[in-house]
Amino acid sequence: MSSGANATHIPVRTTIPRLPLSQRPTIRTERLLLRALTQDDLEASWALRRDPQFMAESTLGTPDASIEESQVALDKLTEPEAEHFLFGLFLADTGELIGDAGIHTIRGSGIGWPTVGYKLAPAHWGRGYATECMSAVLKAWWELPREEVEATVHPYTLPLPQRQETGELEGQEDEEGKEGMPSAVRERVVADIAAYNTGSKRVLEKLGFEDFGYWDEPDTQLHRLGQPLMMGHYVLSSPS
Question: Which of 41, 77, 96, 181 is 20 to 30 A from 2, comparing alpha carbons?
């Protein structure tokens, strides 16, 4: 679907959580504890990140070669001013770290909206943990205090009445009658997955995401760097 890849992004008025997100809540679900990672989690994080299967769908697609690489990743996650809403996933009954999940890009994503993602240890795949944790993360995300912003977003993430087939907003006055201002739209989050990743597709659909297009993109993973990879793009609107 090359038209989606080449669509011209459009300006909108919307909301995002008030930044910076220096504090993240501790979230409890039926089986999981979600909390911000700390430096005390280095050894457990290294145990996960050296597993090729755990890192298979990461940006580079490679496991950490040393605990020092895991330290660099952990340092980024624990920066007080970091623009993300990410959590470590712990089994509530044992305290074992089994993954991470949340919103990893709030501003500046390729689609223009905050982007969600998760990784789970292979031993815990297929048990419903991804849906359970992401449902809790999204609930907490929508409850954060908001601020109004202008953003430039992919047109296919918007309802048809708010865009033309060319990917530009329909020419209309906003509710205050001022021509030329970006239209006000409900906030959204997006997810990007490889087309072969049917497990994540099912998780997103359970969470209420809808796909707005599949198209080839240059792969970022080191073993396929630059090769075309069919990616699926999903969007979820805020509940209000």
Answer: 181
Helices and strands (H, E) in the chain, number of each type: 5, 11
pLDDT of residue 117: 96
Mean pLDDT of 99-115: 94
pLDDT > 90 in the chain, percent:
77
Closest CA to 162 of 151, 174, 150: 174
Contacts of 64 (CB under 8 A, 6+ apart): 46, 49, 50, 55, 70, 73
Assigned token pair, 211: 């796909």
Phi, psi of 219 (to 5 degrees): -70, 145
Q: pTM of the entire structure?
A: 0.90
Helix spans in the chain (H)? 2-6, 42-49, 67-77, 129-142, 198-206
Q: Apex CA 110: angle with CA 108 and CA 111, to 5°? A: 100
Terminal-residue alpha carbon distance, the chain? 31
CA distance 222 to 142: 35
What is d(CA 28, CA 160) in angstroms, rounded to the nearest whole number? 38
Q: How far is 206 from 191, CA to CA, in rounded Å?
A: 13
Average confidence score pLDDT of the chain = 90
pLDDT (tens digit, 9 = 90+) per residue, 194-208? 999 999 999 999 999
Instruction: Give Cβ neighbours of residue 176 (< 8 Å, ≥ 6 apart).
Output: none
| Residue 185: both structure tokens together | 């739209």
